[in-house]
Each structure stands twice: as structure tokens, then as C-alpha cells.
Amino acid sequence: MKILCDTRDKIDAVRGILNYFDRHGIEWERRALKTGDYMLEGQDNLVIDRKGGLGELCVNLCSADVSRFYREIRRAHDDGVRLVILCEQYGVKTFRDIAGWKNPYGKVTGRMLQEKVYQLEMAYRVPVLFCDKRSTGRRIVEILTGQGENA
User: Fold this and answer.
1) Domain residue spans of the chain
2) Which of 69, 113, 128, 135 lies 20 to 30 angstroms, CA to CA, from 119?
3) What distance lies between CA 37 and its chain's CA centroid?
């Protein structure tokens, strides 16, 4: 098993994930991916798009540049790729927890973001899963290998 990691993700942002892979003997390689941030080599029908928190997810779903994000989602959908969004957010475990999020940067509320996530999941069948930063590497492996809850 080799996990491919997109080269567009900044190395500092993913160092903990790559360290997890190394500690657990998981082969990985940084490569430019057409869609998402992580996939198993040779299995391009499932990709994970990692978000560094609800703030990043909010920018993707609620900003003026939302069309870029939806182009990627539509491309995955049209190519028959199952896209999973994995959002690193301490204290958020389920979709319902989004409503309590306090946006420190703008006018979008947790409830507004929750509605956008719901629309995304319904329209494109893109699940949004959550984990804290310390468990991102483990969750990536679980999702890509079909193990664990909500994989």
C-alpha cells in the first residue's frame, strides 16, 4: 500500500500526517493529484480532500471563489471518483457540531456553514468527516482502506 499525497499541500501543514505514515511503516509519495489531497496508488476512484479546519471549509463553501471548489467536486463526480472531505477541527465530531462553530473572521455562522455542508452532501454525495489534527493520518488510512467508522 502506498498513499499518494498531493504536492500542492504545504509540507508544514502535512508534516504530522507524513510522520504518522512513517511511524506506521506506510509508504507514501508526494505527487500532483488531479483531485483531492490523498489517494491509494492505483486506486484513483477514492480521494480525500483534507481541510485544515472549519475556517478553510467555510472559505471553500461560502466565499466569492466557491466556483473553483465546486469545479473540483463536479470533476470528481463526472470522473466517477468518490470524494471524501476530511476536516481537521478539534471538538467537531459530526455534522451537527458545525452549528456551534464561531467564525472568528467573518459573517458566516456555524448554522450557515452547516447548511452549505448539507447541500454539498445531498447534491454530490460528498461526505464531510471530522477529526482532530492528531488523528488525521490514522483517519486517512482508515478511509482509504475502508476500515473504521464512516470510512
Assistant:
1) 2-145
2) 135
3) 8
Residue 151 scores a pLDDT above 60: no
Q: Cell numbers 445531498 correspond to what residue?
A: 122
Fold exhibited by the domain 2-145: Rossmann fold (3.40.50)
The pLDDT tens digits of the residues spanning 68-109 come to: 899 999 999 999 999 999 999 999 999 899 999 998 888 999
HEC sequence for the chain = CEEEEECCCCHHHHHHHHHHHHHCCCEEEEECCCCCCEEECCEEEEEEEEECCHHHHHHHHHCCCHHHHHHHHHHHHHCCCEEEEEEECCCCCCHHHHHHCCCCCCCCCHHHHHHHHHHHHHHHCCCEEEECHHHHHHHHHHHHHCCCCCC
